[in-house]
Design a protein that fits this description.
200 residues; alpha+beta; 5-stranded mixed β-barrel; 16% strand
Length: 200
C-alpha cells in the first residue's frame, strides 16, 4: 500500500516537471497557432519580439499587466515586492531592513516603473525562455518608438541603472547579463535609488 502511494506521488511529480519543461521550451510555431493576447495580434521577428503592446498597469516594480490581462515579469530586475510574501519577509531579515522601510522601498520601485511604462506602448523581446517556473511571461521591455518622446528606452536596464533593482542571476537568459552587471555596479557605487537604504 505504501509503495503504491509513493509511486502515485512520483507520477504526479514527474507530470508537473514535464509540464513545466514543455512550457519553457515551446516551439515558436506553437505560439503562432493561437494568439496569446485577446486584444492584440502577436508578431514575431527573428528575435521573437512582441510589438506595440499596451501596459494596462504595473503590479510590482518588475511585473506588468498587459491590456490583454496577461502578466509579464522583467528579466534581470529584482525589486522589493509590494506584496508582503515570504520572500519579502526573508529579504527584510537578510538585509536587516525593517519591514516598514522595505515596504516604502517597494512602493518607490513600483512608482518608478509606473512612471516609466504604465499606460504606454511597449515592445517585448524574449531570451532563451518565454516563461518562468510559475507560468509568467518573462523577457525584456522597450518603450515603443511611436508612443513616447523617450522612444526605445530599454526598461529593464533603466530600472537597474536608476538603482531600483538588486543584481539577480538570470541564467539561462543571459543575453544582457554583462550590461546588467555594469549598471548594477554603477548604481551601487553612486547610491542611486534604493541603494541608499540597501547599503546602510
Amino acid at each position: 500500500m505504501l509503495s503504491v502511494k509513493i509511486l502515485s506521488l512520483l507520477v504526479v511529480f514527474f507530470s508537473i516537471n514535464s509540464f513545466a519543461y514543455a512550457r519553457n521550451n515551446k516551439n515558436l510555431n506553437f505560439y503562432n497557432k493561437k494568439d496569446l493576447f485577446t486584444n492584440q495580434r502577436i508578431n514575431f521577428s527573428d528575435r521573437t519580439q512582441y510589438y506595440g503592446l499596451n501596459v494596462k498597469e504595473v503590479i510590482d516594480g518588475n511585473v506588468l499587466r498587459l491590456s490583454s490581462g496577461q502578466v509579464f515579469r522583467l528579466l534581470g530586475v529584482d525589486v522589493p515586492s509590494v506584496q508582503q510574501s515570504g520572500k519579502f519577509y526573508n529579504e527584510s531579515k537578510d538585509l536587516k531592513i525593517p519591514i516598514e522601510v522595505l515596504s516604502v522601498m517597494a512602493k518607490e520601485a513600483l512608482l518608478f516603473t509606473k512612471k516609466l511604462v504604465e499606460k504606454k506602448k511597449i515592445n517585448i523581446e524574449f531570451d532563451t525562455q518565454h516563461y518562468d517556473l510559475y507560468g509568467v511571461l518573462i523577457g525584456y521591455v522597450y518603450l515603443d518608438e511611436k508612443d513616447d518622446a523617450d522612444d526605445g528606452i530599454f526598461v529593464n536596464a533603466e530600472i537597474i541603472k536608476n538603482g531600483y533593482s538588486h543584481y539577480v542571476d538570470t541564467a539561462p537568459n543571459v543575453r544582457y547579463i554583462e550590461l546588467f552587471k555594469q549598471l548594477h555596479q554603477q548604481a551601487k557605487e553612486k547610491a542611486r535609488g534604493l541603494w541608499k537604504q540597501w547599503q546602510r
